[in-house]
User: Which sequence fits this backbone?
């Protein structure tokens, strides 16, 4: 592991301009996903209010048929708001996911270039492998989660079972993420060689690979928490925010390259 870390910093020193480019695209990726997700979530919440408020304000009872008639008149509007709410909530997941595939794929390809220079044709193949891994691993997961969460509004789903299964869906993301991020580190190889190396490192040597992944992601989480603390103030200090943000994105870049070097080390 010492050799992996040493070679990582040597690669960074040799390609400083490329490192800066990766750093900047990481910032763009983070801001794009954050702003896009928040925008559609806010729109979804506004539509949810258009569904909830008429129901809360209605005073339906056997002695108050006028309220029931009024609610019936508003049913079409409530139905439209309900459909719009789910549309925006889906957008808040799928559009950031598409941005993730596009920009994060470019970032992983560029990070692989720190290890070995390749031509544009090979970079394109690497990006396609990255996109393929995402579609194979995550798309079925998101579609299943989307289908199940939408069932909470049907009569045949109990709330307790729904919450329990929601936790199961959340925990299922962890092994899928491990599979995907292991594959991302191997997109510089052909599909056949990638699968072989994946088996050797991610499966056969999981007792070594998994702890390394946990440590690397722990570093990212720690630097992310520092960034959160600098932002979680009434008046954040801009210098502190900038420094913590630079540390956060630098740690992401370094740990990604360490991961790539480890996974490709035969």
Assistant:
């Amino acid at each position: 592991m010492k050799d992996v870390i040493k070679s990582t910093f040597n690669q960074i020193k040799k390609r400083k301009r490329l490192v800066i480019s990766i750093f900047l695209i990481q910032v763009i990726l983070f801001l794009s996903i954050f702003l896009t997700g928040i925008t559609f979530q806010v729109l979804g919440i506004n539509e949810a209010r258009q569904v909830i408020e008429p129901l809360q304000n209605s005073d339906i009872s056997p002695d108050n048929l006028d309220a029931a008639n009024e609610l019936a008149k508003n049913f079409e509007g409530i139905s439209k708001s309900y459909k719009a709410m789910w549309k925006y909530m889906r957008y808040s997941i799928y559009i950031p996911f598409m941005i993730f595939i596009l920009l994060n794929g470019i970032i992983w390809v560029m990070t692989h270039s720190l290890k070995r220079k390749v031509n544009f044709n090979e970079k394109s193949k690497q990006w396609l492998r990255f996109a393929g891994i995402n579609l194979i691993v995550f798309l079925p997961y998101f579609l299943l989660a989307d289908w199940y969460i939408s069932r909470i509004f049907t009569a045949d789903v109990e709330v307790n079972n729904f919450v329990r299964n929601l936790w199961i869906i959340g925990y299922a993301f962890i092994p899928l993420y491990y599979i995907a991020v292991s594959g991302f580190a191997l997109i510089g190889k052909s599909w056949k060689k990638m699968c072989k190396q994946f088996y050797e490192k991610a499966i056969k040597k999981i007792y070594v690979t998994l702890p390394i992944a946990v440590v690397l992601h722990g570093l990212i989480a720690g630097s992310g928490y520092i960034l959160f603390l600098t932002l979680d103030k009434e008046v954040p200090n801009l210098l502190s925010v900038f420094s913590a943000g630079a540390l956060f994105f630098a740690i992401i870049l370094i740990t990604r390259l360490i991961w790539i070097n480890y996974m490709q080390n035969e």
In short: The chain has one domain: 2-34+96-264. Residues 16-57 form the longest helix (42 residues).
